[in-house]
Amino acid sequence: MTRILGRRDFLAGSAALVGAAVGAGFTCVEFASAAPIEVPMVDKLSIRVLVDSTHNLFLRPTTVNGVSVQPTPLQTGFPNVIHTQWGLSLWLESQRGNEPRTLMLDYGYSPDVLITNMDIMGVDVKKIDALIVSHGHFDHIGGLMGFLDKYRDALPADVKLYAGGEDNFCHRLIGAPGQLTDFGTLDRRALAAQKVATVLCERPTVIAGHAFTTGQIKRFGIEKVFPNTMVEYGIKDGLGCDATQYTHFTAAELQGKVVPDEHTHEHATCFNVKDRGLVVITSCGHVGILNTIRQAQEVSGIKKLHALIGGFHLGPATADYTDQVVTELKTFAPDVMVPMHCSGQTFVDSVQKIMPDKLLLASAAARLNFGA
Q: Among the four residues 42, 61, 123, 128, which has the most C-beta atoms within 10 Å?
């Protein structure tokens, strides 16, 4: 059973992990117990959208079922402008009593856009307690190393990067069969050079005493992984992923063949907001938003779904499939849904048709507020 970490415990535990990260290039923390984790509760949560595919210059403050969205006051004016790109990066600020935490989830496609938006929005990097990456797609990891190049000295000396598992380091490719091109790789060597310890969270994990991750997400029901990237398992010149230590990889994967990407180690980041319930951030949701919600409920023991946020990867889906997913999503009775990034217009259309009172739209530079 995972215990709730106070800040002193959190930082003390990090120090030991950093030593392992520098020596071995990465470290893996798994929770031996299959019992539900002890999920912390926060009084309030704020999410600032650092990078998204759109920016609504005319965003007006709005509240839907207790969740408010408002434009972030920009720290710099003309000629600076919020940039958009295919990718996602979120700035997570939570409060429990007098105890604040700041986490950064995903890093967009390129460091230039990420850093520009961070500067314009005026976020304070020195407040960061931990870093999280949802999965190994370049539109979520592309800005990470540039971010660390610029801001590493401002982060805690023992800062950790929480990743879903070894699969996050695999080499991705994109394109039609026979015409595949490189889609990037998360480089553990570069992370080690920056003295950033990587925690592989195949099991649910409490982060900084405020958030928790789902661990590896179980798959069942109507959802499917839409074709997107291909993945190559194996390590070449220190770059890539080591599949030999895991039993759930196939023979083809272990032989280093290029296979369809099933996002084995994509995980979601979640908060339990006092008197509201779960806030589930799917980032991309390749393994299915329904599966992700069920996993968050199972590992936390909390049924109430307050909000579903992030990329839902329903952009490639047909309208009838999306309607089916949204119809089942309605049974979870979410207070609000905030689609971003890869969610797609078909998802927005389905929600507007099936449960329009639950839809809240945001964009880059928006700020979402949950709780008191």
A: 42
Domains in the chain, start-ordered, CATH in brackets? Answer: 7-371 (3.60.15.10)
Query: Are 170 and 232 within 8 A, CB to CB?
Result: yes
How many CB atoms lie under 10 A from the CB of residue 2? 17
Q: Which two tokens mark 95? A: 């409060």
pTM of full prediction above 0.85: yes
Give the pLDDT confidence of 117-138 residue by residue, as tens digits.
Answer: 999 999 999 999 999 999 999 9
Q: Distance between CA 118 and CA 112 in Å, rounded?
A: 10
User: Helices 144-151 and 111-121, interaxial angle, to 10°?
Assistant: 50
Which segments of 250-351 are extended strands (E)? 258-260, 269-273, 277-283, 305-311, 336-340
pLDDT tens, residue by residue, 223-275: 988 878 999 888 888 899 887 766 566 777 667 678 888 888 899 999 999 99
Beta bridge partners of 172: 231
Residue 350 makes CB contacts below 8 A (sequence gap 6+) with 319, 322, 323, 325, 326
79 preceded by a cis bond (ω within 30 of 0): yes
- For the stretch 167-197, pLDDT in tens is 899 999 998 877 899 999 999 999 999 999 8
Query: Tokens 């290039």 belong to which residue?
Result: 25
10 Å Cβ neighbour count for 50?
30
User: What Cα–Cα distance (Å) separates residue 367 from each residue in 14, 191, 265?
Assistant: 29, 29, 28
